[in-house]
């Protein structure tokens, strides 16, 4: 293993009031138009349908300028794997960047969180396989992120539904889902840059095609079926400061929010 990186900085970052126009440009239109809105690629050949799609997108974007408040919390944290656990360490107060890893103590007292990931029996793989282990003596780094559009888009969706504007409600819900994913992709790209693993001149198209090093693992999938583990990441990222909580069903609120960890290993994959 031992794919060492030297992040430019480690620790927590929170950014509020991100320009909605920037995030709108990160939307994967194929996902929005064909998956979330249910149109077909051939529909784009019909001038009237194409115009309807583009007008709907523009209308949602204009609404988003006043109804969405994109904010993110993310960070890069020192860690090591221990079997199917990830030990996330605290950095010492005197540590300003991770190049001086000798300032980091890997004693049990310095573990701030332990994440558990079940091993997939079919593929015999775990997220932990991509990290340096406690026995390697080499520190690794884990990216963590949570993003949200805030509570207003949820209330606006309810308003549209209550006013029987069902078509716009459908468009709005799909658009906000795509915008949330775009915000997560935007944040993932920031983490890659701060990890020092981003390729020169990465583009939004590279993001859509996953043409980059690292993978972003959300909770609730085969690599992490226990949604409750997500709470530990939210705690590290101080998600409550952003108004994000987990409800009794282990779902994030507000609805248009998402959380993930970033594994930088070049061979990391989904299964």
What does this structure look like?
- It is a single chain.
- With 271 residues, this protein is of the alpha+beta class.
- Helix content is 32%, strand content 19%.
- It has seven helices and nine strands; from the N terminus they run E-H-H-H-E-E-E-E-H-H-H-E-H-E-E-E.
- The chain has helices at residues 20-24, 29-36, 47-67, 152-162, 166-195, 204-208, 230-236, and strands spanning 11-15, 71-82, 85-89, 111-116, 140-148, 215-218, 245-246, 252-253, 257-263.
- The strands form two sheets. Strands 1, 2, 3, 4, 5, 6 and 9 form a seven-stranded antiparallel beta sheet that branches.
- Helix 2 (29-36) packs antiparallel against helix 5 (166-195) and helix 4 packs antiparallel against helix 5 (166-195).
Short description:
The protein has seven helices and nine strands, in the order βαααββββαααβαβββ. A hairpin with a 5-residue loop joins strand 7 and strand 8.
Which range best describes the helical content: under 10%, 10-25%, 25-40%, 40-55%, 55-70% or over 70%? 25-40%
Quaternary organisation of the protein chains? single chain
Counted beta strands: 9
What structural category do the secondary elements indicate? alpha+beta
Major sheet size, sense and barrel closure: 7 strands, antiparallel
Mean pLDDT: 93
Unreliable residue runs: none
Tag the structure with descriptive keywords.
271 residues; alpha+beta; two-stranded antiparallel sheet; globular
Task: Reconstruct the topology from this structure.
Elements: E1 11-15, H1 20-24, H2 29-36, H3 47-67, E2 71-82, E3 85-89, E4 111-116, E5 140-148, H4 152-162, H5 166-195, H6 204-208, E6 215-218, H7 230-236, E7 245-246, E8 252-253, E9 257-263
Antiparallel strand pairs: 1-2, 2-3, 2-5, 3-4, 5-9, 6-9, 7-8
Helix pairs in contact: 2-5, 3-5, 4-5
């Amino acid at each position: 293993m031992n794919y060492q990186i030297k992040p430019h900085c480690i620790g927590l970052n929170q950014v509020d009031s991100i320009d909605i126009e920037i995030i709108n440009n990160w939307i994967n239109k194929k996902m929005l138009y064909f998956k979330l809105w249910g149109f077909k690629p051939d529909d784009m050949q019909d001038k009237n349908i194409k115009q309807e799609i583009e007008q709907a997108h523009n209308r949602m974007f204009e609404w988003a300028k006043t109804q969405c408040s994109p904010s993110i919390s993310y960070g890069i944290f020192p860690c090591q794997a221990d079997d199917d656990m990830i030990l996330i360490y605290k950095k010492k107060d005197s540590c300003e960047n991770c190049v001086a890893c000798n300032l980091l103590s890997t004693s049990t007292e310095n573990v701030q969180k332990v994440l558990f990931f079940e091993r997939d029996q079919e593929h015999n793989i775990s997220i932990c396989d991509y990290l340096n282990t406690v026995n390697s003596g080499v520190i690794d780094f884990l990216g963590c992120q949570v993003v949200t559009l805030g509570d207003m888009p949820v209330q606006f969706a309810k308003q549209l539904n209550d006013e029987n504007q069902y078509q716009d409600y459908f468009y709005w819900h799909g658009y906000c889902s795509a915008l949330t994913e775009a915000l997560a992709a935007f944040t993932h790209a920031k983490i890659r840059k701060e990890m020092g693993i981003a390729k020169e001149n990465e583009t939004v198209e590279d993001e859509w095609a996953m043409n980059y090093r690292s993978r972003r693992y959300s909770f609730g999938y085969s690599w992490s079926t226990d949604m409750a583990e997500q709470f530990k990441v939210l705690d590290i990222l101080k998600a409550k400061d952003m108004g994000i909580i987990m409800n009794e069903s282990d779902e994030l609120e507000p609805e248009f929010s998402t959380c993930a960890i970033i594994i930088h290993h070049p061979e990391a994959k989904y299964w």
